[in-house]
Recover the amino acids of this structure.
């Protein structure tokens, strides 16, 4: 079974640097171990980047120079840096209003299964909600019990597991039993808020504002 993800091509361009929180937990000359958005530790050599777009410029045993969202930050061992979201979201009852970022994209923070905070790109070209394998683990999803399938991405066919999210909360809107795909290839630096969520919304765009209103 294949899942359509035509808009995944957007993820290959440098407009996205989705890290919201970066922490340095280990340092050596030329290398740094960082945690991004509460995920698993990643050891980077100078010049390497995490899937979220955090790049290590240089490192000593005392500090690391990191490039986050196009800006360089120097972090000492044990310190962290938190960015601000590139879009604004307001929520009242069954309605969420999202403001586009400078590139015209709409991104929102979501809570999966009440456990994992995930940044999502609103993507009407994706059949279902999609999350990374790291997000699935943080949400406590037993994705290996799901149905195996494939997704068409910009870089080719990617393996996925089809699962059900117990809950997905965006703003004050909570949906139950949401179809989703867990990507295991490591090529999904941001979640996709696909049609398995959006089909249950009324969507209205007015310039740089996108309003999602729950229908059922």
């Amino acid at each position: 079974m294949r899942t359509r993800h035509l808009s995944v091509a957007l993820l290959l361009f440098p407009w996205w640097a989705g890290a919201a929180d970066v922490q340095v937990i280990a340092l050596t000359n030329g290398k740094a171990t960082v945690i991004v958005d509460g995920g698993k530790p990643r050891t980077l050599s100078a010049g390497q980047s995490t899937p979220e777009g955090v790049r290590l410029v240089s490192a000593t045993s005392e500090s690391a120079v990191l490039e986050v969202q196009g800006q360089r930050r120097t972090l000492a061992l044990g310190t962290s840096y938190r960015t601000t979201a590139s879009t604004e979201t307001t929520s009242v009852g069954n309605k969420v209003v999202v403001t586009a970022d400078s590139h015209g994209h709409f991104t929102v923070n979501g809570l999966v299964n009440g456990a994992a905070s995930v940044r999502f790109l609103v993507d009407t070209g994706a059949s279902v909600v999609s999350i990374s394998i790291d997000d699935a683990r943080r949400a406590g999803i037993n994705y290996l019990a799901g149905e195996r399938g494939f997704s068409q991405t910009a870089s080719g066919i990617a393996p996925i597991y089809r699962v059900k999210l117990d809950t997905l909360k965006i703003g004050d809107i909570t949906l139950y039993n949401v179809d989703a795909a867990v990507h295991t290839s490591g090529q999904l630096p941001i979640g996709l808020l696909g049609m398995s969520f959006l089909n249950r919304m009324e969507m209205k765009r007015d310039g740089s504002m996108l309003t999602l209103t729950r229908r059922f």
About this structure: Residues 5-19 have pLDDT under 50 and may be disordered.
